[in-house]
Amino acid sequence: MRRDAFLKSLAALAAAGTLPLPARAAGSLKMMIPANPGGGWDATGRTLGRAAAILGNNVTVGGSGCSEFAEHIESGKMRPIAVTSQKRLPGIAIPTMKEQGYDVILGNWRGVYGAPGIGADDRAALTSSVLAATKTKAWTDALAKNGWTPAVLAGKGFEDFVEYEFSSLRAIMYLSGMV
């Protein structure tokens, strides 16, 4: 949220009834920032729109990966109130939602998918290429630069993870009255 926002904490957001999904699983949502408002990505791969919406005082609070808001937090323009990870992130003194009494754990993950009907050989080649890329200096540099936690999954493990994530999201949307 903006440094000068009238709400000062996660508890204040909850009291005002404005916690975004999935911290509130019932009642009406007062605000939610779409995954990519305005569309597009900048040259570093960061989505455009969220920071501008917060800094422009169009929304009170927004969520994103820490790296997307880092420069605004460091400059003092934004104030972080929580991270949704299981534990505090290394080098970042921001409490988790769980520490603050909200049983919410979310990761910010990305995936690589093949086209529907991809053949076994093509799937194996794509998987091999992606796994090889995660062992390069460019990848480890990107992890460090963006503060990303490596969590590489492939094959059945990735399929199960994605199914669990989407299943959880469907449940949250249902409990929130969105579907």
Q: What key attributes describe this structure?
A:
179 residues, mainly alpha, D-Maltodextrin-Binding Protein, domain 2, 2 domains
What does this structure look like?
The protein has helices spanning 10-15, 50-55, 66-74, 120-133, 137-146, 155-175. The longest helix is centred in the C-terminal third of the chain and has 21 residues, at 155-175. The chain has 179 residues and is mainly alpha-helical. Helix content is 37%, strand content 0%. It has 6 helices and no strands. It starts with 9 loop residues before the first helix and ends with a helix. Mean pLDDT is 77; it is low at 21-41. It has 2 domains: 1-107, 3-Layer(aba) Sandwich (D-Maltodextrin-Binding Protein, domain 2); 120-175, no CATH class.
Fold blueprint:
Layout (H helix, E strand, L loop, with lengths): L9 H6 L34 H6 L10 H9 L45 H14 L3 H10 L8 H21 L4
- Low-confidence stretches at least 5 residues in length (pLDDT < 50)? 21-41
Under CATH, the topology of the largest domain is which?
D-Maltodextrin-Binding Protein, domain 2
Q: Which of globular, elongated, flat, extended, rod-shaped describes the shape?
A: globular
CATH homologous superfamily designation of the largest domain: Periplasmic binding protein-like II
For the biggest sheet, the summary is: none
**Oligomer status:** single chain
Order of helices and strands: HHHHHH
What class would the helix/strand composition place it in?
mainly alpha
